[in-house]
Structure formats: structure tokens, C-alpha cells
Design a protein that fits this description.
- This protein is mainly α and about 400 residues long.
- Strand 11 and strand 12 form a beta hairpin.
- The mean pLDDT is about 95.
Length: about 400
């Protein structure tokens, strides 16, 4: 295995640094005149006929706030553009909260999504760290809306979808929004010192681990309004990009990293307290890799599996690989187990040989079972967030949210 793929080598650090720089350069054309993020095509050219989505705009604010710590030229202005969009055209000034997006004709996408609001919180915390104007106000607004409409203190979980006016709450409950809530709340605790949000993360995590442990460490994704798992949800549309049928191994990997971060930050001087959560994170990781990596004779992580662990959707989404890279690196650093370093090297080689676009930059967002580019779920390359984080998380402090970890490592 080449040294550039191996964990904690100078060559691998340089490989990731080069990818990071290329990604930051790739996304420069995202801002619309109002600040919301255009959908980027294969070479970074904006596809202006597509919806400008709030969660992507948030991710760009987060990415370029981090870019400012790394000294990437133009990052401050790009972060400011995204924050302008979040405080301006994407904000529902009548009903409160954020629209999911703006269509090309200027109409708003209906409803209010927990998923998008969690990303507004993440964008605001990263913007605060970067000293971007309006970020403090954005965080205050985002937390007020989130706490009023999405967080359920009695349940210790978040609801998912309201109508646009915040008058009707949908019966669907989901773990994807709760997962990104954990990410956002950990950032709030780290950046704003609001430890009650870290406590909330623990409540969500305890629920998730209970469901996962009872289900052979495959995480149910979809639930009723009383939090009864719907294991057949979207069985007729198994490749849905946000509500896929079955288990999503990429989420098992992402949860394993977030749980590790929460445990290390919560039990700072209590290894015994953190240990069962680290063990659970390993179980989630190992189940996901066992089920989905090279599961059908070709490298890659299958998008979904059934509850028996067999692949259902064989497509490879770029974000699942990025979360595998992050989780393998974090668990290697935390446990010292060689198996995670070996997995990491395999993931790195696959990234270099199949997923990274060496011609136009960034990652192919969707590949088929034979690792040919597909366009059915993710045409173009709208998302820098997963890929950029995968160039930084492997060598960042695992107990700290990534934006703060990068800022501190850069001495900013």
C-alpha cells in the first residue's frame, strides 16, 4: 500500500492537504446574487436552473469559515455571502425559520425541515469562529427557532417536518435530522459554551444506541410520531436520497464518529464513562463496514442494506466514503487498533482511484456497483462539506467540533 494512503504518514497528510485546497478552489462560484448557494455542476459551474437549497448554503458557510482558518484566499467573502443568504433571502420573515430552498423561478420550497435548521446552527457556529458579520445573530435566531419548534425536551429527540407556517407538525420522525442535530449541538457547546446542548446530544445518542443494539447494530432511520420504527419505509423507493429504505451504512459510520466525539468531550477525565460509548461506536462502525464495504465484489460502500445486512441499493455515494474515512481515522486515533488504520488505507486508495475526479476536481457524487459515474440521485457536485471534512477530521482533535479543531490547530 502506498505511503500516501497510510494513516499518519507525511505523505497522507500532504495528500489530504492537496485535496482540501482543490476542494476549496472548486466551490468559489456557489454564491447567487442573494447569497444562497447555486447547485454546482461537474466542473464547479453553477447550475442556475436548480433549486438553491438552505442546507447546501449552510454547508458552504461552514466550509469557507474553515477555509479562512486555513488561509484559503477568498474564504471570508464566500462565507459572508452564504451568511447573507441565510439572514436574507432564505429566511422566512413572515412565519420564522428558514425555507428549505428557493426555486429558479424565485418561489420558495414549502415546509420547514429540522435537517435544514440543524445546518443553520452549524453554519452560525463556524461563522462565529471565523469572525464573520452577522454570525452571532444568526446563531441566536437559529437556536430560538429550533428550540421552539423542533426540540422535544420530554422525548429527548427532535421532530422532523413542519408546514411552512409552523402550524402543522408532520407525523414522520427521522434519525438523519437528529444526527445532524447532534453535530450542530456539539458545535454550540464547543463554540458558545452552552453545555446544555451537549447534554441533549447524549439523550439523542442513548436513544439511537438502544435502537441500534436491539437491531444488530443496524440503525433504524424512520419512525412514527411516537417513535415506533417503520422498518418498511420507502421499500418501494429504496434509493430515496433522504429517506432510503433499510439501513444506511454511511449513517452508521457517521454516528460512530459523532458518538466518539460526544463521549470524549463529555467524559474528559473519565475514561470509564467514555468506554461503553466508544465500544458502541466501534460496533456501529464494524457492522457498517462488514455489511457494505466490498459487499458485492467491487470496492465501495453500498448505499443501503436490508435488515439482514445484504445490499439493497448498490450505488456508492461519495459522502458514505468520506464518513468511512473520518470514522476509521478517529477510531484508530482513539483506540490504537491497527484494523482501523488498515481500513483507512483501503478507503484512501478507493478515494484516489475511483471517487476523486482528477480532471475537474472534487468527488464524483454517485457511482454504480461497478464504480461508473451515475446521475440519478446526485448529478453534479453540489456538496463540499463531506469531502472537505474528510480531508481535515483524520488529523484533528477527535473530541472537538471540526471548525474549532481546525482553528485551534492553525493557531487562529
Amino acid at each position: 500500500m502506498l505511503a500516501k494512503y497510510q494513516y499518519n504518514t507525511p505523505e497522507n497528510r500532504q495528500f489530504l492537504s492537496d485535496l482540501c485546497s482543490t476542494l476549496l478552489s472548486f466551490g468559489h462560484k456557489f454564491p447567487s446574487p442573494g447569497g444562497s448557494s447555486y447547485y454546482l455542476g461537474d466542473d464547479g459551474t453553477p447550475w442556475t436552473d436548480r433549486t438553491r437549497e438552505t442546507y447546501v448554503t449552510c454547508r458552504m458557510a461552514h466550509v469557507y469559515s474553515i477555509g479562512s482558518f486555513l488561509g484559503h484566499e477568498g474564504s471570508e467573502a464566500l462565507a459572508d455571502a452564504a451568511i447573507k443568504g441565510l439572514r436574507g433571502e432564505l429566511l422566512d420573515k413572515v412565519n420564522g425559520g428558514w425555507y428549505p430552498g428557493i426555486n429558479a423561478d424565485g418561489s420558495f420550497v414549502p415546509d420547514k425541515l429540522c435537517y435544514a435548521h440543524a445546518f443553520v446552527i452549524l453554519a452560525a457556529t463556524s461563522g462565529i469562529l471565523a469572525g464573520r458579520p452577522g454570525a452571532d445573530e444568526l446563531l441566536g435566531e437559529a437556536l430560538a427557532v429550533y428550540d421552539r419548534f423542533f426540540w422535544n425536551e420530554e422525548e429527548g429527540l427532535s421532530s422532523d417536518v413542519w408546514n411552512t407556517e409552523f402550524t402543522v407538525l408532520d407525523d414522520y420522525r427521522g434519525l438523519n435530522a437528529n444526527m445532524h442535530t447532534v453535530e450542530a449541538f456539539l458545535a454550540v457547546a464547543d463554540v458558545a459554551g452552552r453545555e446544555e446542548y451537549r447534554v441533549r446530544c447524549g439523550r439523542i445518542i442513548d436513544h439511537v444506541l438502544g435502537w441500534a443494539k436491539a437491531n444488530s447494530w443496524r440503525i433504524p432511520e424512520h419512525f412514527s410520531n411516537t417513535w415506533v420504527a417503520d422498518l418498511d419505509c420507502n421499500k418501494d423507493r429504496p434509493d430515496d436520497p433522504f429517506k432510503p429504505y433499510g439501513a444506511t451504512p454511511g449513517h452508521g459510520l457517521e454516528w460512530s464518529r459523532l458518538i466518539t466525539q460526544w463521549a470524549l468531550s463529555t467524559f474528559k477525565d473519565n475514561a470509564d464513562g467514555a468506554a461503553p460509548y466508544i465500544e458502541a461506536a466501534e460496533n456501529l462502525y464494524n457492522r457498517a463496514v462488514s455489511d457494505a464495504w466490498n459487499a458485492d465484489g467491487a470496492p465501495g460502500i453500498c448505499y443501503t442494506t436490508g435488515w439482514d445486512g445484504k445490499p439493497v441499493v448498490h450505488d456508492r455515494m461519495h459522502w458514505t466514503l468520506m464518513e468511512a474515512i473520518n470514522a476509521a481515522a478517529v477510531l484508530c486515533a482513539v483506540t490504537g487498533k491497527q484494523k482501523y488504520a488498515e481500513d483507512y488505507a483501503e478507503f484512501m486508495q478507493y478515494l484516489d482511484e475511483k471517487v476523486w475526479d482528477h480532471v475537474n476536481g472534487s468527488c464524483f457524487h454517485q457511482l454504480d456497483a461497478e464504480n461508473r459515474v451515475m446521475l440519478t440521485v446526485w448529478p453534479g457536485k453540489p456538496d463540499l462539506y463531506h469531502a472537505l471534512q474528510a480531508t481535515l477530521i483524520p488529523y484533528s482533535e477527535p473530541s472537538v467540533s471540526i471548525a474549532l479543531a481546525v482553528k485551534e490547530a492553525c493557531g487562529k
